Amino acid sequence: MRVLVVEDSEKLRRAVVTALRRSGYAVDQSGDGSQGLWHAEAIEYDVIVLDLMLPGMHGLEIINRLREKRNMTHILVLTAKDSIEDRVRGLQCGADDYLVKPFALDELLARVQALARRGAKEKNPILQLGAGVSINTASRIVARDCKPITLTPREYALLEYLAQRRGRVVSRSDIEMHIYDSMVEPMSNVVDAAVYALRRKIDPPGGPSLIETRRGMGYMICSDATDHAVAAR
């Protein structure tokens, strides 16, 4: 999942970005409103964490511009203003959630996760992938036959990204854009290596892989959990 953080306080921005990255999100950041708007228009994000009082452009203006262009990326507003009028104004402009400063980082992570799930249109937090493998997107726990599988934050992000798009081929460039913080070098095998490492953890011994390789196209998890394909290894 890819998140944009637009916050002019360097200390707070650094803390938020660090917490998100440790949780497996790919994160872009900006301390300027105009630059933040440029990022939001140029790149597809799952969630935008947006301060209101920004140099260059006010946060509400950023929301207005995005919504006018039918950019419906979920937006979590951060603000020191806690009056009802300020909250209503932000929500009326098109914000999806509100978090008043100061806040706990755990609460911010929970709200970002909830917005990301909403963006993926998953009503049920439990995703069944076949071979007894399931993902609880609320607790971020992956299990096989009810036994937890230990994944790194990056591995979990990759699995959830593919699982939420099961039945569709996901290109390497899409994976790079949503899972990694910066552009991957051309001809890099970083995505292939990540999929290989993930398969070793989630695939049943001696059984078919849940992640199918489509040569020259990308990867996919089959939509029918009972009929997943054998991936080319």
Quick overview of this protein structure:
The protein is an alpha/beta fold and 233 residues long. It folds into two domains: 118 residues, 3-Layer(aba) Sandwich (Rossmann fold); 96 residues, Winged helix-like DNA-binding domain superfamily/Winged helix DNA-binding domain (Arc Repressor Mutant, subunit A, Orthogonal Bundle), CATH 1.10.10.10. The protein is built from eight helices and eleven strands.
General description of the model:
- With 233 residues, the chain is of the alpha/beta class.
- The chain folds into 2 domains: 2-119, Rossmann fold (3-Layer(aba) Sandwich), CATH 3.40.50; 126-221, Arc Repressor Mutant, subunit A, CATH 1.10.10.10.
- The protein has 8 helices and 11 strands.
- It has helices at residues 10-22, 33-42, 59-68, 84-93, 105-119, 153-163, 172-179, 190-202; strands at 2-6, 26-30, 47-51, 74-79, 97-100, 126-130, 133-136, 141-144, 147-149, 211-214, 218-221.
- Strands 2-1-3-4-5 form a 5-stranded parallel beta sheet, with helices on both faces. The chain has a 4-stranded antiparallel beta sheet with strand order 6-7-8-9, covered by helices on one side.
- The two termini are 25 Å apart.
N to C succession of SSEs: EHEHEHEHEHEEEEHHHEE
What is the class of the largest domain in the CATH system?
Answer: Alpha Beta
Strand segment count: 11
- Radius of gyration, CA atoms, in whole angstroms: 19 Å
* CATH fold descriptor of the largest domain: Rossmann fold
Estimated helix fraction: 25-40%
Q: Given the C-alpha coordinates, what overall shape results? A: elongated
Structural class from helices and strands?
A: alpha/beta
Determine the number of helices (DSSP H or I, runs of at least 4 residues). 8
| Average pLDDT over all residues | 85
Strand count, sense and closure of the main sheet? Answer: 5 strands, parallel
